[in-house]
Amino acid sequence: MATVSDVMVRTGRRGELGLLGLAVAVAVLARGLVDYHADYLELDELAIYAAGWIVVAGVIHLAIRRWASYADPVLVPAVLALNGIGLAMIRRIDFAYASRGRDTDFGEVQIVWTLLGIGLALLVILLIRDYRLLRRFTYTAGLVGLIGLLLPLMPVIGTQINGARIWINVFGKSLQPGEFAKIAFVVFFAGYLVSNRDTLALAGPKILGMRFPRPRDMGPLALVWVAAMLVQIYERDLGTSLLLFGIFVAMLYVATERLSWVVLGLGMFAVGAVLAGTLFSHVGSRYTAWLHALDSSVYSSGASEQLVRGLFGMASGGLFGTGLGEGRPDLVPYAESDFIVASLGEELGLTGLMAILTLYVIIVQRAMRTAIGVRHGFGKLLAAGLGFAIALQVFIVVGGVTRVIPLTGLTTPFLAYGGSSMLANWIIVGLLLRISDQARRPEVVTP
Amino acid sequence: MSQLSITLLRMGFLVLLWTLVLSAIAVLRADLYGTRVTARGRGRESRREHDARAEKTASPSRAATGIRTGSISTKDPSAGHIAVTGGPLKGTTIPLGAAPVLVGRASTCTLVIDDDYCSARHCRIYPEGDRWMVEDLGSTNGTYLGNQKVTDPVPFREGDVIRIGATALELRG
Fold first, then answer.
1. Domain range spanning residue A212?
2. Is residue A447 part of a domain?
3. ipTM value of the model?
4. Which has more confidence, A239 or A402?
5. Distance from CA of B108 to the nearest CA of A (A)
6. Which residue, of A78, A157, A403, B148, has the greatest Cβ tally within 10 A?
7. Do B10 and A22 touch (CB under 8 A)?
8. A interface mutation test: which of B18, B25, B28, B75 has the most A CBs within 10 A?
């Protein structure tokens, strides 16, 4: 026999403060190195930048102490460090473009998006005092997600950029509503599955040692599959459809503990992938560029040029990288957004890239730990879904850039240039902070 | 700046990055929360086994029932498990096999509940055909299935809750 006892929870706020200091140091040192190599280093400006970071980190820290005092202590420092590395890298690519006569201000714009994102995360903590509130909006969230996905198809506001129709124009800014739809869908899936998981888990025939669901319970899975396929066909956005379907299958598995859902999901995904590859030329060419990236015919036709240049960049980085500001990441098209992982791999090397990926692992692990710790089924599914959203997105991007899976256009959370992704991912952080605060807060015992 | 100091800064950045990662992991290590499972002392353990042999009760061996804490067995979905949903042992699950489960305060029981309202051998949960039954073993304070006091053996269905003192047990599939 063993005994089970409650463990005193420490809020971990002091640990968080120390980690925040390290994260700020990472962000500022990265910017200093970038500026030095661009012959742009002015210590006054760097001091102002450092002061800005300290103020931002301090505000987040105090806000968490005030409104979510038991929130996870590692989440915010990890995210801030990634964000700081991303800002330095984007600025570095600005300099590289400038030296070739192309004037960009991605770096400055991204700082604004970062501040807005942090503001949104704090707003989430402030407004949503109890995450269970979100369960009331289960079906509203589903509808909002669906509308968000379909908005880019609308005639006036939808815009097509680089072959994918996933942007809308709002006040002269282009936004990707798919990034926000992702969060709405996680809320919807969590609310739906927490009410229906028993029928999905228990009923059904047993084949090959696995309990399969009844055909009539397969409705939601089929519906999401069809939605993901439609997004892929009409918006030409492989990444988002893969992400949505993956999140749903993962949450089904978390809700029901049935391996059969994963088998079914992977099977349906494989069918969809093969069908899309044979029916649509833009998908087929992605497969070719992935499987035969280094063939000279494929490379010279331009299909795999970006991918291969990224690979060469990472190869020239080696184990320890060329050093921030000393490589040539600008040789890869979209080095500041889709291929920021390749840029970082070139300048920080395998060592730096592994540290970055470990930071993502830590973020996802904290989400899963929160899911285990939280007492409410809806919270478990929500935290696991949000964590999986980040994990899957990182996998799709990094896998695409490193040629593990076909390349799809998704942004690397917190690192890549892009407003929508920055705002959406900070909202996820806000939600995770709120759920983890409630998960770790000791239960008030009423006699 | 000299080339050497630049190289040092370059490597310093990587070191700083890994310092952050490793300190984050160190903070996580110090940040355990939830419930902790402590194995009982050696002396009590051996006495328990000795008692079990001497009494020759129907209670199954520890290996057969394999009480686990905090985890849920997924191996055989039809067998199900009993989850402790209230009381001091909250969070414990007991996978159900073919063997009956004895609940009580005595250390020979499968599930030992340290509660003043629990008798030494309080109740028994056993399989009959393809369902599980609960039987009160003449306890002082009674076993409650839902709001009903258990007198004769009654079926224990999935989702039902048994109350023994402050402890609540639920059968899950």
1. 3-440
2. no
3. 0.87
4. A402
5. 10
6. A78
7. no
8. B28
